[in-house]
Amino acid sequence: MFTSNPTFDAYKQIFATGALLESYYTTILRTVLGTLLTVVVSAMLAYPLSKRYLLGRKWWMGLIIFTMFFGGGLIPTYLLVKELHMLNTIWSLVIPGFNATEYRLYENGVLIETKSMQAATPGAQSAVSTIAGRGVGTYEYRSELVNAGGVTSSDVLTVRVEK
């Protein structure tokens, strides 16, 4: 039940590598950044919800509560972090859950449209662009979503106009 020759070798190894201090640094940084971002976003959402005259207030509140109980899951969150190129960064622990703030549309590599998006919405975001009047030819379209974590770019969509 008791060891006959106790040593402190394991403790020496932990303190010698600096891994323990790095772990504490990551924990403290994540706690501070996460708390600050959560307080700011919660306050920005809570203020309008506190007003009785807000149109659809009960619906918005129900939607927010629903998303608190049912998240997307671990795999979609990992895929999001991977696509935002945030793997192995402190931001992979802090940013997920914050939506895009801007939408950009490129045609043949040229920016043709930019839209501001409402960040920190409880539901899915969407952006729609109407493209009309293009002449005969081939066009390549690519979109980008921008948030505090960086830019996520779509694959290129090629459209051929024949008539």
UniProtKB/TrEMBL annotation:
Keywords: Cell membrane, Membrane, Transmembrane, Transmembrane helix, Transport
Transmembrane region(s): 28-47, 59-81
Keyword Transport on entry: yes
Membrane topology summary: Multi-pass membrane protein
Chief place where the protein resides: membrane
InterPro entries, alphabetized: Ig_E-set, MetI-like_sf
Name used for this protein in its record: Uncharacterized protein
